[in-house]
Write a structure and sequence with these properties.
The complex is a heterodimer of chains A (488) and B (348).
Chain A lengths: L11 H25 L6 E3 L5 E3 L2 H31 L4 H9 L1 H16 L5 H5 L4 H22 L22 E2 L10 E2 L10 H37 L1 H16 L2 H8 L2 H6 L1 H9 L1 H15 L3 H23 L4 E4 L4 E3 L12 H29 L3 H9 L3 H12 L1 H24 L11 H8 L8 H30 L1
Antiparallel strand pairs in A: 1-2, 3-4, 5-6
Helix pairs in contact in A: 1-2, 2-3, 4-6, 6-7, 6-19, 7-8, 7-12, 7-14, 7-17, 7-19, 8-14, 11-14, 12-13, 12-16, 14-17, 15-16, 17-18, 17-19, 18-19
Chain B lengths: L1 H26 L2 H11 L6 H10 L6 H9 L6 E3 L5 E3 L32 H36 L4 H14 L3 H13 L21 H31 L2 H9 L3 H13 L1 H25 L4 H10 L3 H29 L7
Antiparallel strand pairs in B: 1-2
The chains are: A mainly alpha (488), B mainly alpha (348).
């Protein structure tokens, strides 16, 4: 097996790509320069009173930009599509494209279904009217599917993420695997890291760690922020002063100092993360209980069974989440008993728990401030006054009148905040806090790769670029959603 | 106004006290103290040796008393060994009885000693803050003007090509955390892999003599992340101003576009970004910690990492006091400055 180049048999296409990109860049620069100069009148007035204007120079440049963009996208697509069929003979890009086949299929299916039914899908469907939103959604879903197929189904990854291959230490992208056997994948597509592991497989395994933690942590932060922010904004007064002071207290902490204090093995020993988990994870349960009770308390025959089912299931989830080996808090000196082992649905690695808890803890105050501000604004509206006159309870007004009307900004902020959480997770990994040092997540990989950055940059660049694209996708998605939700 | 500032200062002191107490509590948890004893003494200490080490140095007293000692409102601990040696928080071994002080804490101006650097905390923090101050100064010099220019150019004609391309640039820059852009910059501009050795991948030499080659990459890395955010806020404020009535009036009076932007719009559009810039400064602190670690620049952020990694209690407390003061002061300045810049707002 020989060393793979980036594009292999498709190298002739490189010229076209370079050409298209060069034309695009020049045309965009020209276009920007021209937009600074006011365009002269190319208008002609005819005798019958009609006017005509030719497209002029700026129109021409605009056309060039459009075609160059289309050409660039077409060539890039060609790499991917041909790569699917040709595999590694089309170089590293081809090999990666073939490995990612399930992701491409899932993406195309998602887009096809969503675009066909977009008029019936509400805000989500409207997303497909905005180019920015579609690009962002595509980037995000790419990583979600890549994480799912790579981390859960093992379809994308080519090698085991922890096994070290002899002779593959710090090898460049596309190096053939030394001593590869029949069933093995023959190359290290993105090279080997400083412990001779496959960077490509670790990248997609690590994507799952991020995709798994970030949305859930953000969701919990939102539950905490909403449950505390609504009453703070609605009632005001002492409660508001107290909660705002607490929120500002946490916000005044430099995030990294907080992480260094909270996410250490010594703190895990004291059981503080478990106590924090006990407090923070109860909020979704409280939220659900109040939500359902405030709506259905007038129909006890419906409410009571509903609450029993929902809260029973929620309580089981909550208890399985917080208890490990039959104990809620287990320190060397004492332990508080929790759910017994045979009822425990799943266990969470204590390192993961402390990361999760601290990320929720850092995000919740900002969400609290946003929700409080929205509640302060919305509680002066007429429909709130109408609900008060009808005699609705305060929690009904907060959760069924104020919250649905605050959904636009909250959904946008949710997307942005997932991106921010991803950045925070990366920061934790970058400082080697929390997750184990052999964990494939992106922050930890960047941290491991940065020591040899000036000689073998590929091991750190791959996760860095991935993190960048995921966060960029989330930001673009948020932008698209904001644009579309403002439109109606 | 005076009352407002006084009240804010009161809240500041209360917040500072609460935060330092939390830091104090977390660093004084027993497992942390045990780690401290083992790194200071030796790693194979028995449990009795650990507790006698900690007991001798006043670490095992109740938390509120220790905190009061650190603050300087309670007399420092004194240990008398059976073999006749006497030492305490405020004096070393062998100090004559009459020269021994009983109070030494923050109020007396004594910030304690660092266990990692074996040096006075106040002098460590002062030198490191100076180095970080240099970094921050250049970051602000690069970040603020470029962010404002990008934001104003993008916002003056909403929806134009220039707006779209500049907005894309600022979205990309907000999506790139420092550890990503830093890694990419080092790999591209400082590594042998790409062959462009334009800059140095380490800023250690910039501590004594900073020049373009060894200082530009760290400065750029920190600036980029904050720049996108400020630029987007400036753009939003600029587009809002450009649709205002008085701009339309000026337009209809025949004022040229250049004059409208420079004389009418700009001043009003720059009020909101001022707050954003001030509130961005505490966030830069995060970037400073990451960049100083990545580029090995031994400033304040580097000290934070060293202190936190080694559970150096007194240094960590000083570091958190400084960062909390920075956060709260910038909030205060942004509130006061906003009132001065925008005469429509009055503080009751």
């Amino acid at each position: 097996m020989e060393q793979l180049t980036w594009t292999g048999a498709l190298s002739p296409l490189n010229l076209f790509l370079a050409l298209a990109v060069a034309v695009l860049v020049i045309a965009v620069v020209v276009q920007i320069a021209m937009s600074l100069v006011p365009s002269g009148g190319n208008r002609a007035v005819y005798a019958d009173g009609t006017m005509s204007a030719d497209k002029g120079l700026s129109g021409l440049v605009g056309m060039v930009v459009q075609y160059a963009l289309l050409a660039t996208i077409a060539v890039a697509l060609l790499y991917i599509v041909l790569g699917i069929f040709m595999g590694p003979s089309a170089g590293i890009v081809g090999g990666m494209s073939q490995q990612l086949l399930p992701v491409w299929i899932a993406l195309v299916a998602t887009y096809a279904i969503s675009i066909i039914f977009k008029r019936r899908l509400g805000l989500y469907g409207k997303l497909f009217d905005s180019t920015v939103g579609m690009i962002g959604f595509g980037l995000v879903m790419f990583w979600v599917y890549a994480g799912f197929f790579g981390g859960v189904m093992d379809m994308v990854t080519t090698h085991d993420t922890l096994s070290q291959m002899s002779g593959m230490k710090n090898k460049a992208p596309g190096t053939p695997l030394r001593g590869a056997e029949e069933g093995d994948y023959q190359w290290f597509l993105l090279g080997g890291d400083n412990l001779a592991r496959d960077v490509f497989s670790r990248l997609f395994d690590g994507a799952w760690v991020v995709v798994k933690i970030a949305p859930f942590a953000t969701l919990f932060a939102f539950m905490v922020g909403i449950t505390l922010g609504l009453p703070a904004g609605y009632y005001g007064g002492r409660l508001d002063t107290f909660l705002s002071f607490l929120a500002n207290l946490i916000l005044a902490f430099p995030v990294i100092l907080l992480f260094y204090l909270l996410v250490t093995p010594e703190i895990v020993l004291t059981g503080i993360p478990n106590y924090m988990a006990l407090v923070l994870f109860i909020f979704p349960l409280v939220f659900l209980a109040i939500l359902l009770n405030s709506r259905f308390y007038t129909q006890p025959s419906l409410r009571t069974p509903l609450l029993i089912v929902v809260l029973g299931f929620g309580a089981w989830l909550y208890l399985s989440l917080v208890s490990t080996d039959g104990a809620v808090v287990a320190t060397p000196t004492y332990s508080i008993p929790g759910l017994p082992g045979f009822l425990d649905g799943f266990d969470i690695d204590p390192n993961l728990l402390v990361v999760f808890v601290s990320v929720v803890f850092v995000n919740a105050p900002t969400v609290f401030r946003i929700v409080r501000g929205l509640a302060l604004d919305i509680k002066t509206r007429d429909y709130v006054a109408a609900a008060q006159t009808r005699g609705e309870g305060p929690w009904y007004i907060m959760l069924w009148e104020i919250l649905p009307n605050a959904r636009g900004p909250l959904i946008v902020d949710f997307c942005l905040r997932i991106g921010y959480t991803t950045i925070l997770l990366g920061t934790l990994g970058f400082f080697g806090l929390g997750l184990a040092s052999e964990s494939p997540d992106w922050g930890t990989t960047i941290n491991a790769g940065r020591r040899l950055l000036s000689i073998y940059p590929h091991a750190a660049i791959a996760p860095a670029v991935s993190l960048l694209t995921l966060v960029l996708g989330l930001n673009l998605l948020a932008d698209g959603l904001r644009e579309e939700s403002l439109r109606d | 106004m005076g009352l407002f500032i006084l009240r804010r200062l009161g809240v500041m002191i209360l917040t500072g006290l609460c935060l330092t107490f939390i830091v104090f509590w977390l660093t004084n948890l027993y497992p942390n103290l045990e780690k401290l004893a083992k790194t200071q003494g030796n790693f194979r200490m028995s449990d009795e040796a650990v507790s006698s080490y900690l007991g001798d140095r006043g670490y095992l007293e109740p938390l509120p008393i220790k905190f009061a000692q650190w603050l300087g409102v309670a007399p420092g601990w004194v240990t008398e060994k059976p073999e006749g040696k006497t030492f305490g928080r405020c004096f070393a071994e062998g100090t004559p009885e009459e020269e021994r002080r009983s109070f030494c804490g923050v109020i007396q101006g004594d910030w304690g000693t660092s266990t990692v650097f074996k040096d006075d905390v106040s002098s460590i923090v002062a030198t490191r803050l100076g180095l970080t101050g240099k970094l921050m100064f250049w970051v602000l010099v690069l970040m603020v003007p470029s962010a404002l220019i990008v934001g104003v150019l993008a916002g003056m004609r909403e929806g134009s090509k220039m707006d779209r391309s500049l907005s894309t640039v600022s979205i990309i820059s907000t999506a790139t955390p420092e550890y990503v852009s830093g890694v990419i910059f080092i790999a591209v501009f400082a590594s042998s892999a790409f062959g462009l050795k334009w800059f140095k991948g380490s800023a250690t030499s910039a501590m004594e003599n900073a020049n373009f080659e060894n200082f530009f990459l760290p400065v750029l890395t920190i600036s980029l992340y904050g720049m996108g955010y400020i630029a987007r806020m400036t753009r939003a404020s600029m587009t809002e101003v450009m649709t205002a009535q008085y701009i339309r009036t000026a337009r209809l009076k025949g004022v040229s576009f250049r004059n409208i932007v420079m004389k009418h719009a700009l001043r009003n559009a720059l009020i909101a970004p001022f707050t954003v810039i001030m509130l961005q400064i505490p966030w830069l602190l995060n970037g400073v910690v990451i960049v100083e670690t990545l580029f090995n620049y031994k400033g304040f952020g580097w000290v934070l990492v060293q202190a936190a990694g080694n559970n150096d209690i007194e240094l960590l407390l000083a570091v958190s006091v400084v960062s909390v003061v920075v956060v709260l002061l910038t909030q205060l300045i942004s509130d006061i400055g906003y009132v001065f810049l925008n005469p429509r707002i009055r503080i009751s």
